[in-house]
Amino acid sequence: MRRVLIWAPLGFFALVFALVMTGLLAPSDRAVKSAMVGKPVPGFVLPALVPGKPGVNSAAFADGKPRLINVFASWCVPCIAEAPQLMKLKQQGVEIVGVATADTPEDMANFLKTAGDPFAAIGDDRIRKVQFALGSAGVPESFVIDGSGKIVMQHIGYIGPQDMPKILAALAGVQP
Amino acid sequence: MIAEGGLAALWIAAAMALVQLVLGGSAARSGAEELMRATRKIAVVQGLLALGAFLTLILLFVQSDMSVLLVATNSHSAKPLIYKIAGAWGNHEGSMLLWVTVLGVAGAGVAIFEKRLDGKTLAATLAAQAVLALGFYAFLLLASNPFLRLDPPAPDGQGLNPLLQDPGLAFHPPTLYLGYVGLSVAFSFAVGALLTRQIGPAFARAMRPWVLGAWFFLTIGITAGSYWAYYELGWGGWWFWDPVENASLMPWLAATALLHSVTVLATRDGLRAWTLMLAVVAFSMSMIGTFLVRSGILVSVHAFAVDPTRGTFILALLAIYIGGALALFGARVGTVTQGSTFQLVSREGALVLNNLLLCVILGVVFIGTLYPLVAQAMGQQLSVGAPFFNAASVPVALALVVATMAGPMLKWRKDQWGALGRKMMLPAAAMVTIVVVLLVAMPGTPIVPLLGLVAAAGLAVASIVPLLGRKLRRTPIHIYGMVLAHLGVAVAIAGMASDTAFKQERLAAVRVGETVAVGSFKAKLTEIRPIIGENWSALEATLSIRRNDGDPFRLQPQQRYFSQPVTTTSEAAISTMIDGQLYTVLGASDGQGRYQIRMWWKPFVTFIWLGGFMIAFGGLLAMVGRIRREMRSEDEAE
Lengths: 176, 638
Fold this sequence. Notes:
Number of strands of chain B: 10
Strand content of chain A: 15-25%
Oligomer: heterodimer
Largest sheet of chain B: 6 strands, antiparallel
Largest interface: A-B, 40 and 49 residues
Order of helices and strands of chain A: HEEEHEHEHEEH
């Protein structure tokens, strides 16, 4: 027993060495990709943030209709920049569900007044629990959900005009 | 010419290290007096040459000699002088040169000051130190020459990462390096002792000041680094469990365990094999940490870009040193006789518990840091975040606090539960009081920070208990060091728990003239204006802030733009009050007059760093106290 213990540190170090060597030879990809893509949306219920706009219940996502979850915030400046694209998506009949992170009702009401309001629902994710459950690391981020409630695509950063075809294709069920 | 001089000094230093290895090795074998004297002298010369090479590099940076590749890629003639100097080690080659310089100077220090250790062990220690230095000299000379020329010279330099243009950070890496490399001495002592099988109190007393010194610098480095990340990154957090932070935390945890176990070895001649193991592990963690940071194999905000050849080179060095030391340990430790034994309830018992708990935390941090690599080897990308580290380490840390309370109250070798219970009455009373106060005054306090505050209160009182009943003027300095360090732990934990439980955050996009509120503060954005600095331009917000109905004061957070290279940074504006800090950050604008403002009220957050510095100075006091004692007993012996 004592003999094994004495040599255990060296064995452990050999393992670590092998591990680090493989890491060194195969450099990693640096984008923070969600592990949730391809999986069903995690179950969550978020209360409404602003009056007159419902909260979000993910159980309702498996109704056969694709939709877009937009993780955003009133304090997030790129979110203002992507608002026109979201408005266009809404005009094309896309249902956009907002997950508002670390936000207050007053600030959000202000944001919707100035930036526009493409959202069918806005959930109050004050402590960012749902954002993290989705595998999102920042705002804005968007997730395309198919009719069965499965996450089919993650878009990191703001949605610019050049991103529209990709998003629309994912919503239409075309495999990227 | 200057650069060539530096390079020559480096080559000669490497040759000296080789001589030191041969002389030291044969001195350790034969025990010949002249060989030992020669080894000492060579070690001093080697240290001086390395220092000379490093000073040469600093001179090249100060002169902005753009014919040197390293200066041209990392400095700029328009940079303030202090950052020109700091630029010398703010890059891969320079930092490796600093590393090997500290290694050489530490070896010289051992050669000059170490008088108590038996001659053979000292010679073996210096030989081990020479082996370490040789590897890093080879790495510098063959794969990272800092004195490489650029022909033709560049018209001007390419700047320095603007995030590093900060007085705190300029001196942060050297401080950490002093800590890391200080642990190399403990490592070499352990290797030397394994070679000569001389492991006992004399060995422990020789090693202890080095461990304390390294630990002092590591603690200062981690504390300062945490404050730097806090105000410079603009995220309001003080610890991110980032691989680079973990790289400095892991050697610190091992060194903390080591400095407690070395005390057992010095005082009671116990824990022989364990202390040797910790000495090897502590420096191994320093090297692994540096390697992880330098190789860029882990994703981090601090990552340096390094080519794979260099990564492989350092990894090979690690394999030789760590693998070699562990193999030596395996081969020799079986022949190390067991030291003296002790009862479960004793000072030694508490210190063993402290060691085990520290090693558990070390294991948690190690696994969490390297797990992304495991996942990657299995074809997955993931990162391990704060939730894992907090959930896994905080309960252990709380248990560790209890061990820290009990340890100093216990007698060496054997004590009674009853006696411990009586001494624990006072801290227990403090803990109960805090529980009651918090439950009444702050009913919503989450459980983990609540436990943290309770543990802090208990430890604060318990850390003073060893002074009770002592004649304060006759109490040895190292006891004061211990008291101060343990009290610092309590203060730091109180700050962490208070910030976690009671901080308030507010994010808003506001126009000039609008007001944002957080906690008892109301901040009005009165102005946004552009300003120009030495090598940056910025947008500066002026916030007029009132606490309740108090006098208004101003905070001016900035969004800075550096041109060389193009980078944006947030300069948080922080107001420190007696009961906490108000932290404000200016974010991007929407182009239509609205600016992102982020504010935090962080009660007693400053205690974190106050505690950190108390811990560090506790270590310093202990070191000074120990060295004085050693010198006195030496005088008496003569």
